Amino acid sequence: MHLLEYYASDHWLSRIDARIKLLVTLIVLVMVLSYQGVGFQLLVAALSLTMIMSMKIPWRLFLLRFSEPLLIVLVVLLLKIFFTGHDPLFSLNILGFQLTAYREGLAEGIAIGSRIMAAISLMAVLVYATPFPELMAALSWLRVPRGFIEILLYAYRYIFVLFEEAMVIYQAQKNRLGYANFRNRLSSFGILTGSLILKAFEQSQTLSTAMVQRGYDGNMPLFQSRPFRSSEIFLSCLVVTVMGILWRI
User: Fold this and answer.
1) Which of the residues 63, 64, 215, 233 has the least number of beta carbons within 10 Å of its own beta carbon?
2) Are residues 28 and 120 part of one domain?
3) Taking the CA of residue 51 as centre, how many other CA atoms within 13 Å lie in the half-sphere pointing to its CB?
4) Cβ proximity of 81 and 106 under 8 Å
């Protein structure tokens, strides 16, 4: 299992049409972003995390996926607490600087953080339960520009190639004590970055030449979507209705 992808093929959610999942996700996402408060966001985050856990996602992948959003939430929360509001909550003296926390900032930080976590959890459910090609086919069905979809397909294909290349270079540098001290680390990281940029440029040239030789005319065929099933439509309408009622409460 590659750390950059996961597809729970044996989960009930994975058997639902990708277009249905994408539409429901977008509708609930709009509800999350427009809701004033934290109750609905926390509910969506809890339900999404429950579904993710039911897919038996590896803990390493789960922590890797949510580490960056949690860091963003922490930064936003700290900025809001100490720089927004008028009603003091507590004060801190750090290296001679007086920092005052405010109640209004805490409330705003929690509200923004809950939106971020609910949105990320919701999108994670969609990604974990949907194969990437089916997700691209669903975007095509929604009339997303084909050029954008093709770029995503190329990026998805070659991000793994570049990742493997980066790991080979990193292991070679590590075996030669390229990360023994801070100075060597900076030098090795610069070489690694430059090598990946050159590799990406080389791969783009190779891909362009290969596709032209095979008759590529700028139109890439995508998957054909199957007809909607009535049970999936009923389930999606039920979910949207229930979430809409909770959003209105």
Assistant:
1) 215
2) yes
3) 20
4) yes
- Angstrom distance (rounded) from CA 186 to CA 74: 28
Q: 16 and 232 in contact (C-beta within 8 Å)?
A: yes
CB–CB of 223/20 below 8 Å?
no
Residues 124 and 164 grouped into a single domain:
no
Q: Give the single-character DSSP code of 130.
A: S
The alpha carbon torsion through 241, 244, 245, 249 (nearest 10 deg) reads 180
172 lies in the same domain as 50: no
Residue 119 within a domain? yes
Q: What is the pLDDT of residues 15-45, one digit of tens each?
A: 888 899 999 999 999 999 999 889 999 999 9
Q: Is the pLDDT of residue 181 over 80?
A: yes
Structure tokens at 141: 């069905």
Neighbours of 106 (CB within 10 A): 18
Return the pLDDT at 223: 62
Location of structure tokens 């339900």: 47
Its sign, for the CA torsion 165, 196, 58, 135, is negative
Residues 101 and 16 grouped into a single domain: yes
pTM recorded for the entire structure: 0.79
Classify residue 96 by its DSSP letter: T
DSSP assignment of 138-155:
HHHHTT--HHHHHHHHHH
Domain check: are 24 and 122 in the same one?
Answer: yes
Instruction: Classify 189 as helix, strand or coil.
Output: helix
d(CA 3, CA 23): 26
